[in-house]
Each structure stands twice: as structure tokens, then as C-alpha cells.
Amino acid sequence: MTTAVVVGAGPNGLAAAITLAQRGIEVTVLEAAETIGGGTRSTERILPGLLHDDGAAVHPIGLASPFFRSLNLPAHGVEWGWPEVDLAHPLDGGRAGAMLASLDATTGHLGPDAGRWRRLFGPLARGFDDLAGEVLQPLLHLPRHPVRLARFGSAALLPADVLGRIWRTEEAAALFAGNAAHGWRPLSRPATSAFALMFTAISHRYGWPVVRGGSIRLAEALAKVLTDLGGRIETGNRVRSLHEVRSADVVMLDLEPGAVADLAGDELPTSVQRAYRRFRRGPAAFKVDLAIEGGVPWRDEFSGRAGTVHVCGSAAEVAAAESSINNGHMPERPFVLVAQQYLADRQRSVGDVHPVYAYAHVPHGYTGDATEAVIAQLERFAPGTRDRIVGLHTRSPGDLQRHNSNLVGGDIIGGANTLAQVATRPRITTNPYYVGIPGVFMCSASTPPGAGVHGMCGHNAALSALDRIARDR
Questions:
Q1: What are the Amine oxidase domain coordinates in residue numbering (predicted)?
Q2: What is the mean pLDDT of residues 332-359?
Q3: Is residue 149 predicted with pLDDT exceeding 80?
């Protein structure tokens, strides 16, 4: 029987393992940590019973993932929960933009921008499943829906601050800019509109749900699928050299490029070694978990009902903050993402004390303390927040890397989303998953299609390995 070893039990490693096991391959997953999950772990960090997500918190791409949908995860314990409002973006003066799952409900709050919003996002939402099948794989492929992909690409390639000029209201402009900031790039750079288009279209197709019981439930469900297929998972088993796993016919590495280079050593072809060492990292996150009595006292009408809140202010302020971090400077008012998962999952709270998840976009490898900057941004749009905080836990970029070695310098997106790197991640090659060593493949978020809890990096990498196995027979 063909055998495979997968190094890393995050969503992509588990997805790769499942894909191989579905084809009758004997799979063993080795995880260095004592628990599975990678970026989907959940813990009680501040108060007993108060549940915080350590990494990914809200899962629009997870629900939309073609691979995850093929597994029927609800049958394995995944229960999705939706807040009343997908996304809010507060502005000064008690105003806010709001994004709701219904296109009609969203446009009803956008005044003179209602028609433009509908014309831009309506077709994307209606055809999102076809579009997801195109963009959640390597850029170089034969498209099954070329017209839909071309229509998306013509707008997606624009800088967000160029396409964003169509908006007449501050609310629509802020929503668009905040979604574009999920690319962690200056909004003046080409293709930053792609992030705004995708995240908004997903909202109007699937919403922005959470996993009830914590994001870890998603990893646990994937593990259940794998073990039902006969796969095995070993935690607390750190692989320090590729030689330790080379007895397997296939090796899948859910690791960032530098770690692959370290693991493979001299086995890695020189050109691949150079490419992996040159791989560009993205900016960092500074994470602040809060226990807040009564929740955040947002001033506007939407943020208190929103599962996700983008906290930064106007579109111009978002653009300035993203430009600063990409230039290595810590902004006074950073872009802060806040998740209030308890609104869709009340079991995460303890009485009237609620877990609030937040992280600021900061420069790569930032060594300062951004806690006060995060709280100040909350106070700006929710006066009195500070007085309600009964506990907090912070993780700097360095802490994030120590917790998960794939998060180099606090980069939680698997590498910088420059146009060149998005097109060629993790190196220039026709097969981005193959590392240049027979039988060895990379399947982390540093491979296409990149960051997000969708499993497609692992699934695609495993399909690449299966194709090579078939050709070698």
C-alpha cells in the first residue's frame, strides 16, 4: 500500500491527509504541538468557560470552500452560527457602514450607493460558487468559467483606492476599504480590490459565520473524517529532519517555506532553497483577547450586532494605516479587526462576561506593545469600553510565532500578498506544491490559494501528489 506522512495538523495538513486517504493511501499526520488545529485552536485564556479562538475566528471562506463542502462537516460536528450583522465599520459621529448577508438588506442602508453596490456585488454573489472554484486554486490553470473569471479579474486587478472612488458615501467607502485591508497591502497597490470583492461577495452568498463551540471544532471534525478513513494522527511529535519521514512514499509539509528549507537541508535543490529563503513575509498581527462585562458599548446602531467589526475610521484612515505597516512604521491608529463570536455562539460567554477577539495590523516583526493602541481604537467608537474590561491576554508577533512556527514575525497570512508573490507563491514553477524532492510537497498557506481556513492549499497539494503518483506508475 502507498504510504504518506503529513507534517502539521492544521486545516491544510488535515485536508491534504483526507484527500490522500480518500484515494486509499495509508496516512499518518505528525503534529509537533500537543493538540491539533494550528490556526484553528481555541482555549480558555482569561476565565474558566470563557472561550477564545487563538487564531482564525470567523469563517466565510471555510463555509464557501469547495473541499470543505464536499465533506459534509456538519455531520461530523461542525455547527455554523451567524450573527445578525456580518460586518460593521464604525465612523466618527456614531455612524457606521454595515454589511448583511442579504444584498437587499445591505443596500437598504447605503443610500445613494445602493445601486452601485448592487451592480458590483450582485453578479459576484450569484456566481460565487463558480468563481470560488477558479480562485481557490493555482493561478495557472485551465478555467472552467473563463467569462466569469475574466469579469472578476478586470475589477480585481485594480488598486482598492482606485475602484473605491465609485462610492459616494463614507459608509460604503469604509466597508470597501476595510475588506480590502484583508490583503494586508497598501490600498494603492494593484489587485488589492480583489480582497474587497471576494469578502463582500462571500457575505452576500454565505454570510460570515463562526463555528459554534470554537474554531477548534472545525479541526476536530476534519480529524474525525480522517480517522474514519483509517488515517492516524500523532501529536507531540516534532519532525526535525526530512530524513525522519522519507520512508513514506509521499510527504506533505504543512510548513512555511523557510521551515521546509530547514527541514530538507541539502536535499533541497539549490534554486529551490534560494527561492524559499527569499520568500517575502507579510505584516504582522498583534492579538488582544478581552473579557468584557456587558460587551463592547458601541456607539452606532450596527456594531453591537456584528460578528466582525473593522475598527479604523474612514477609508482614508484605513489606507494610511495599511501603508504605514507595509513601510515598517507603527501607526498611531492601526486597523483593528474585532470579532464578537459570542453573538452567534452564546456558549462562549460566562454570564454577562463576553469574549472579544481583536488584533491590530502592525509591521512585520513588531516588538512594541500595541495593547493601548487597540483599546484606544475601541474607546474611540465605543466610549466606556476600558471600564468594562475584566481581563485581557495579549500576543505579540513574537508570541504568535512561538505559539505557531508558521507565523514568522507574526505574519498570519502565509506571506506577503504582493502581486508577484500571489502569482508565483512560493516560487516560480508550474507546480507550486512540489518542493523539488521526489515525493515531497508543501501544503501550507504559503502555497496557492493562500491564507484562510478553507483547506484548499492542502487539498490542491494532495491532488498534485496523486497526479505525480499516477504518472510515475
A1: 13-260
A2: 98
A3: no
Amino acid at 382: A
Residues 309 and 399 grouped into a single domain: yes
Residue 142, pLDDT > 70, answer no
> What range does the domain containing 343 cover?
80-210+283-403
- Return the C-alpha torsion angle 366, 367, 373, 374, nearest 10: 70
Asked if 324 and 187 sit in the same domain, the reply is yes
Are 429 and 413 in contact by the 8 Å Cβ rule? The answer is no
Helix (H, G, I), strand (E, B) or coil at 386: helix
Instruction: Read off the DSSP letter of residue 363.
Output: -
Above 80 in pLDDT, residue 136?
no
Is there a domain that residue 308 lies in?
yes
- In this structure, the strands spanning 26-30 and 3-7 are parallel
Supply the mean pLDDT for the chain: 95
- Are 268 and 288 members of one domain? no
Residue 473 is predicted with a pLDDT of 64
User: What CA–CA distances, in Å, run from 307 to 53, 78, 269, 338, 393?
Assistant: 13, 18, 46, 8, 20
**Separation CA 116–CA 103 (nearest Å):** 12
Residue 305 included in any domain: yes
Beta bridge partners of 353: 293, 350
pLDDT, residue 152, reads: 78
Inter-residue contact 17 to 252 (CB < 8 Å): yes
pLDDT digits (tens, 9 = 90+) for 256-296: 999 999 999 999 999 999 999 999 999 999 999 999 999 99
Determine if the pTM surpasses 0.90. yes
Q: How many Cα atoms sit within 13 Å of 33 on the Cβ side?
A: 15
Running DSSP on this structure, what letter comes out for residue 131? H
**Backbone angles phi and psi of 86, in degrees to 5:** -65, -50
